[in-house]
Amino acid sequence: MHGARLGKLAWAVGLLLLIVAPFVGLYPIFGMTALCFAIFACAFNLLLGYTGLLSFGHAAYLSTAAYTTGWLVRSAGLSPELGVLAGTGLAAAVGLVVGLIAIRRQGIYFAMVTLAMAQMVYFVFLQAPFTGGEDGLQGVPRGKLFGLISLRNDLVMYYVVLAVFVAVFLFIVRIVHSPYGQVLKAIRENEPRAVSLGYDVDRYKLLAFVLSTALAGLAGSMKTLVLGFASLSDAHWSLSGEVVLMTLLGGMGTFAGPVLGAFTVTGLQNFLADRVGSWVTVIIGAIFVLCVVAFRRGFVGELLAWWQRRGRKS
Amino acid sequence: MDIFGIPLQAFLGQLMLGLVNGSFYAMLSLGLAVIFGLLGIVNFAHGALYMIGAYVAWISLDRFGLNYWLALVVAPLLVGALGVVIERTLLKRLYKIDPIYGLLLTFGLALIGEGLFRYAFGVSGQSYPVPELLQGATNLGFMVLPNYRAWIVLASLLVCFGTWFVIERTRLGSYLRAGTENPALVQAFGINVPVMVMLTYGAGAGLAALAGVLAAPVIQVNPLMGSHLIIVVFAVVVIGGMGSIMGSILSGLALGIIEGLTKVFYPEASNIVVFVIMAIVLVIKPAGLFGKEA
Questions:
Q1: Do A289 and B279 touch (CB under 8 A)?
Q2: Which end of chain B is more exposed for a tag (fewer CB within 10 A), N or C?
Q3: pLDDT tens track for B45-103
Q4: Closest Cα in chain B, distance from residue A21 (Å)
Q5: Is the Cα torsion angle B259, B262, B264, B269 positive or negative in sign?
Q6: pTM of whole model > 0.80?
Q7: Chain B from 253 to 282: CB within 8 A of any A CB
Q8: How far is A220 from A37, CA to CA, in rounded Å?
Q9: What is the DSSP-derived secondary structure letter of residue B146?
C-alpha cells in the first residue's frame, strides 16, 4: 500500500481507538490525563522536532496555565471555556517573554536558559499567595461548557478533551505543512543557511516558541479542569524532563510519536507508582539513557525507517 | 552599627553565607566549564555527582568510621572513578552527534542517581558533623566567623585557582586547551586524546564530589540536594559564559554574594535573583560576561 494512504489509515484507526476506548476498559481519568500530556508533548515536539530547539522548561507554561485556569474558574467564577482561554493566553505571554530572552542564545545554551527561567517560574508559584504553596490549588469545579453542557460526567469531559486534542493535532499538522513550517524545518536543518537565504530566523523561532508554549498552556488548563487541581509538581523541572522523554521515546519530528510517547510514559508511571515506589525515577532515567544511546529515532521514527528500508528493497 | 537599616552583624553573616554558596557555585561551574570545553557535553549529572560525593562522606563516617579528612580524598577518587566508567561506557558514544543528546543522557543519569539514593536512604536529610579541628568560631571583632565556613571558602578558592593554574599555566593544561580547539591535530602529535577526555570527565566528577564533601557539614545530606543546585549553576554558567575558566570562578563567587545580599534586603526574591540576573545579562550581552563566542 502507498505510504501516505497507510499513514492516513493509521490515523483513522488511532482516532477510532480513542473514541471507543472508554467503552472497552480505558479508565476515563487516565485517558484524559494521557490526552492532556499528549497535547503537551505535541506542543513540545513542534519546537524540538520541527524547529530543532530544545526547551528544557516547558513545565513553566503548563503550570502557568494550570494555575491561571484553576484560580479563575474556582475563585473568580469564570466559565471553563473562558478559564482555558485565559490560561492559554497567559502561558503564551510568559512564553513570549522567555522566548525573547532565550532565542538570544543557540543550541545547548537555549536549553539551559529555558530551564533556568522555568525554575524561576517554579519559585514564583512556590511563594505566590494564590497558588496554595505546597498544597496546590485545590477544588477547581469543572462547571458547564458554554453554560450548557455540564462537564461533571467523566465521559462528557473525556470527549471534550479528545476534541481539543484532535484540534491541536490537526493544527500542528497544518503548521508543519504550511510554508511557515517549511522555514522552521530549514532552520532546524541549517540555521546559518536559512539566515543567508534572507529569513529573519529569530522571528520564526520566536513565533514557534510562543505557539508551542500556548499549546503547552492549553494542555495545562485542560489538565486542571480534568483533575480539579493544579500543584507545584506541574511546574517542577522533572515534568519538563518528562515531556522531553515522551517526545524522544515516541519519535521526535513525527506527528504520532509524541502521542504514543505520552501514553507510554503516563501509563508506565501509573502502572509503576503503586508497585515500585521510588524506583520510578530510576526506571524513567534508565529509559532516558537507553533512548539516547540506542533508540534516538523513537517508536515512530524506527517504524518509518523500517518502512522505508522495506520499500527500497522491494 | 547599621547598614541601610540592617544590623552589621546580620549583614556580614549573610555576606559570609553568600560567599559560601558562591564557593559551591564556583567549584561546580568550573567543573561544568572544563567538561564542556573538552567533551562538548553539558553535564546535567553534575548535581547528582555532588550529591553522591556528600553521601560517600556520610556513609564512610557512618558505616566505616572514616573521618572527614579521609572522605575529602576518598569521595573525589570514588566519584571520579564512577565518572570514568560513565565516560567510557556511555558518553563516548555521543561525541559525533548533536550536543543536546549529551544533556539528555546526563539528565537521565541524574534521575537514576537521585532515584537510587532515594530508594536507599529516603528523602529526609542526614546530618554530618563538622570535623573537630574546624568546630567553633573566631571572633574577628566586627563579626563572629564560623571556622568551618571560612574553611569552605578557603578550600574552594584553593581548588578553583589550582584548577585554573593547571589549565592555563602548565604543559598538561596546554594539551587540554589544544584538545578543546582541535582534537584531531593534538592526537596527531602523539597525545592520547581519548584518555585525556576520559580523565577530564573523571576529574570534573571528582571536583563535584569534593564540593559535596565540603557541603556535607553545612547542609542536610539528601538525595535532592544536587538537582536544584545544578539549575542555579547552569544560570551561573550562562551569565559567566562557558568558554572561560576564570569567568566561571568569578561569576560563581559574585552571584553567591549577590544572592546572600538579596536575602538581607528582599528575602522573597533570593531564590530567583540569579535567574533575573541571567535574563538581564542575556539582554545586554548575550554571550555572557566573560564569553568569547558571538
A1: no
A2: C
A3: 999 999 999 999 999 998 898 889 999 999 999 999 999 999 999 998 888 888 889 99
A4: 32
A5: negative
A6: yes
A7: 268, 271-272, 274-276, 278-279, 282
A8: 9
A9: E
